[in-house]
Amino acid sequence: MAVQINPSILSADFARLAEEAEAVQGADFLHVDVMDNHFVPNLTLGVPVVESLARATDTPLDCHLMIEDPDRWAPQYVEAGASSVTFHVEAAAAPVRLAREIRAKGARASMALKPATPIEPFEDLLPELDMLLVMTVEPGFGGQAFLDIMLPKIRRTRELIKKHGLELWLQVDGGVSASTIERCADAGADVFVAGSAVYGAKDPAEAVRALRAQAETATAKASWACDH
């Protein structure tokens, strides 16, 4: 399982987004947090900025929609240039239909779970997805402390993915840093969103490389990866 590092531009300088995208050369995706001040108590950016960012960088965009009514809005982010679109299951009216629409438009379909949302009720949906995001903080703001109590949920999710033999990416987002990424990898995550740990570093590209190395080392020793 290939480790992926997705720097979150929520921690970047919004006045220099094109330059900030270039500053993380070697990243697998750029993670773009879209917040509407309704589903979460914060307001960030929307379709026009994603369109501009997609033109400004060759790094694929991973759009995380923390918004109400993703059934209506998510397809527009694919049209804007996103390569992966994540909707929150708590906000989606018809998650299977939405995942299929995102895929039909040519992007990877991903579903996110807030910390209090269990994975088990959605086991049957997993084959409809390309990625599942387990939030390791409450969505809405960057720079929050990692919630260790999410590690068992990551393990359970990885077990369900293996149970069904799926090639499903398992992403974590929230408080991912040099001090937490190895625990996430050991639990079963293979896609890591890092904001301040990357953009708060003196050399963001080097921070990406260092986080990747840590995650790869932890994954190589992890029981879930060894018997995959």
TrEMBL record:
Key words, A-Z: Carbohydrate metabolism, Cobalt, Isomerase, Manganese, Metal-binding, Zinc
Active site: D33, D173
Binding site residues for substrate: S8, H64, G140, F141, G142, G143, D173, G174, G175, G195, S196
Transmembrane intervals: none
Pathway: Carbohydrate degradation
Gene Ontology biological process terms in this record: pentose catabolic process; pentose-phosphate shunt
EC top class, as a word: isomerase
Substrates-to-products reaction catalysed: D-ribulose 5-phosphate = D-xylulose 5-phosphate
Annotated GO MF terms: D-ribulose-phosphate 3-epimerase activity; metal ion binding
Short name of one Pfam family: Ribul_P_3_epim
Cofactor: Mn(2+); a divalent metal cation; Zn(2+); Co(2+)
Function comment: Catalyzes the reversible epimerization of D-ribulose 5-phosphate to D-xylulose 5-phosphate.
Protein name, per record: Ribulose-phosphate 3-epimerase
Lineage: Bacteria, Bacillati, Actinomycetota, Actinomycetes, Kitasatosporales
Gene this protein is translated from: rpe
